[in-house]
Amino acid sequence: KIKKSRWDSNRLTLEDKKKETELREKRKKKKLSKKQKATEMEQAKEEEKKNWQSFMKANKTISKSANKKSIFASPDNYQGKIGIGTCGMGGKGMTQYTTPDKYKR
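^ that's the sequence the OP posted. Answer follows.
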């Protein structure tokens, strides 16, 4: 902004008026470019969102056909141990449980 002295508060020179109009135009251009960038960013976000949603729609059939049995499920028989093995899902059976030996000094 152009500083005005207290003596010339009511009078502006022609150069001062030009400078003020130039500043106004510069601010308008800057504001317009900011608004344009914001709309471009918004469009890019929407495009990414649409891509993600279409990807998830396309892959729903894959997730439905996957085995939903938990690997942390407890075994059916009374001797089964929780957290040992994969309940027959991983291609291997239950891990054989061995009793620990007593600590010898």
